[in-house]
Amino acid sequence: MYKDFENRVAIITGAASGLGLAIAKRLSQLKARLVLFDSNEDSLVKIKSEFKNEVKVFIVDVTLKENVKMAIDEVGNHFGRIDILINSAGITGRTNIKSHEVEYADIKSVFDVNFMGCFNTSKYVLPWMLKNNFGRILHIASIAGKEGNAGMLAYSASKAAVIAMAKVQGKEYAENNITINALAPAVIKTALLNDMPEEQIKYMTDKIPMKRCGTLEEAANMAVFIVSTENSFSTGFTFDLSGGRATY
Predict the structure, then answer these.
(1) Which residues are designated catalytic?
(2) 3-35, pLDDT tens digit by residue?
(3) Which label site among 4, 58, 136, 153 has the fewest CB atoms less than 10 Å from its CB?
């Protein structure tokens, strides 16, 4: 299964940890040609040795469009194409606070990473995909972007924007053999949870009918399917990974 990934050029953002790293490892098993973007240089250096196949790593701040463009052009020129983009870089910002307590700086920083990061990378990857009339883009969103999590205004709103962008982009490139989708997980066991108050984690987990967090392996397997050639008729869609929480 998934033999089509062999030699596909795949860029993954936020690849030094969490879901991005889990997806990268799964694609490595499928012999994709991996390009890992992350802003944490130390983490990138450490994880590189975990891959049996050769991977290229770039220190990229997805909020800086010039940084993003330079890295993507280098990847495209080196390989001659870019087939897959998975946007996994994201931050939660301050949580467990009411909307009137949210500061402007927090809203901006969360939107810069979660929304503008996805926009910047897709903006500069799409021309490479159009050259070859093929591409797969996956934006990692969140169930919070569909239903809203109390105490997480900045995060929920930014992920809602990511979902809207996937809907727009999916329609725009539907005739170019380029699919663009989003994935909306509920709570996944990642390092992001370490920065959240226990009350916030309990609030989110209690809403999941399965009464547990999702695993990185479950999320990575779904992500791989979404960007495979076998998933050829779904675009502009948001896939749920919510343990039954999603209601629409």
Answers:
(1) 155
(2) 789 989 999 999 999 999 999 999 999 999 999
(3) 4
